[in-house]
Write a structure and sequence with these properties.
Number of strands of chain A: 10
Largest sheet of chain A: 7 strands, mixed
Distance between the termini of chain A: 17 Å
Strand content of chain A: 25-35%
Helix content of chain A: 25-40%
Structural class of chain A: alpha+beta
Oligomer: homodimer
Radius of gyration of chain A: 21 Å
Largest interface: A-B, 59 and 59 residues
Order of helices and strands of chain A: HEEEEHEEEHEHHEE
Chain lengths: ~240, ~240
DNA sequence: TCAAAAGTGTTGGAATTACACCCATGA
DNA sequence: TCATGGGTGTAATTCCAACACTTTTGA
């Protein structure tokens, strides 16, 4: 759901207006983006969190994110933060929800436009250490949500992200974003199971996927100490 | 998806931090809310739009909305704008999407948190005239979308709202928000048809609704110059 | 030969679609 | 009595859920 550029305004109208315009007639809040970066590792859904090196909430876990620049779009800000704080580029990213309770940040009024991003584990190696981050790690979701001390309302953001991705999994082709370019049907099924939080029937799952027309045979196999598995590829991207 | 209040921060940590905090170290954009107020009148889906009395985009049609105050939540700001600019209170309201392209407002960087609101026609009489509004009217959606000159990216916001409500109609009980407290099954069916943009089978629709458990018999009838129709009521709200 | 994961069909029930006529009322 | 919208059932099809064993490989 990306925003399109605005239609050009009537030129005479705006030139006239802009001469006298003072942006300070309305109070301005700070605006941040926060990104829920989700991946699957070791059969579990994980989200990147960063330990805050500075107050407020020093020592607590926070989502990667930060203040937007005035010349970048919200999507660009989210991608920049993903790059700077997680070292990840070019992955699936979508706006989640905007959190704007007046006291959600003790410093001042901060409105956070939250995003969620999906990446396969092989694209997300180790988090990049920055001046702001005392530490960074992947939290198991939803398993470690309750035992962790979060900064701001970031627990809530993670919960909303989980809810969104669970709902969306059923009708949108997003599971593939959590896998490398080629994958086995068992791996795809594991993505569904881990996100949804319950087991699925193998035979029904395979028929459903193959008949959905979303994937195609990659004409390769993956070998292990067992029967080789056919590899598939998502038809999009 | 309402935002919950943030968890309380560590007090010592924040007291220390706040003494030296300068909110101006990061540039701050302006933030507005814009509300897509949808209703159904004369068998058509309509959205309230307001003709701008001042630049920028003077004379073009815009959604009700405006700058947020620093001590109100985003939801509160949207409700305030609905009250001030449409004279409507207490209706269904949900966050839609946040639009933040750098040049979407020619004055300065403005980020708009868009909402959509649903109301029955009897709750939305005439729009309230304000200093900012040269005129206000209900636009037929999607019919009049293309022939109308909009301010900012408000056409895009309307399109996203329509897309959202269409998708949501199929799994969430929102159709009732567009009807008065009691309604006939034919009226309910019309809501679905108008939003989805295509006809539905009457017999299938009725069975589906009655078996869904979402509505109950209001033990009344509506009379006209034809056979009286049973009235129903939404079980929630 | 064994362990490990891959791969494969059928059946019963539920849900969905298509489809057309009679009913009750007010004018 | 007629115009208007209200109200009703059935059959065919498709979709979904439950269920267990054989195959292929590497160690």
């Amino acid at each position: 759901m990306p925003a399109r550029p605005a239609a050009p305004p009537d030129p005479h109208d705006d030139a006239e207006f802009l001469r006298g315009y003072d942006p300070d007639i309305y109070p301005r809040p700070s605006v941040t983006v926060d990104v829920v970066l989700l991946t699957i590792r070791d059969g579990a859904l994980e989200a990147l969190v960063i330990k805050r090196a500075n107050p407020p909430y020093k020592g607590r876990w926070a989502l990667p994110g930060g203040f937007i620049a005035l010349d970048e779009s919200l999507d660009e800000a989210a991608r920049r933060k993903l790059d700077e704080e997680a070292g990840v580029r070019g992955i699936f990213l979508e706006q989640l929800y905007t959190f704007g309770e007046p006291r959600r940040d003790p410093r001042t009024r901060v409105i956070s436009v939250a995003y969620y991003a999906l990446a396969s584990a092989d694209r997300v190696r180790t988090a990049v250490p920055t001046a702001e981050a005392a530490d960074a790690r992947f939290l198991q979701i939803p398993g470690e949500l309750d035992g962790t001390h979060f900064a701001f309302d970031h627990k809530k953001i993670l919960e909303v992200a989980l809810e969104r991705i669970r709902g969306k999994l059923e009708y949108a082709p997003i599971a593939f974003q959590l896998l490398p370019a080629t994958f086995t049907l068992t791996e795809l099924q594991q993505v569904y199971q881990v996100v949804l939080g319950h087991a699925l029937d193998k035979r029904n799952f395979r028929v459903r996927m193959l008949e959905s027309g979303q994937i195609e045979d990659a004409k390769e196999v993956r070998r292990g100490s067992h029967r080789p598995a056919k590899l598939y590829r998502f038809k999009g991207r």
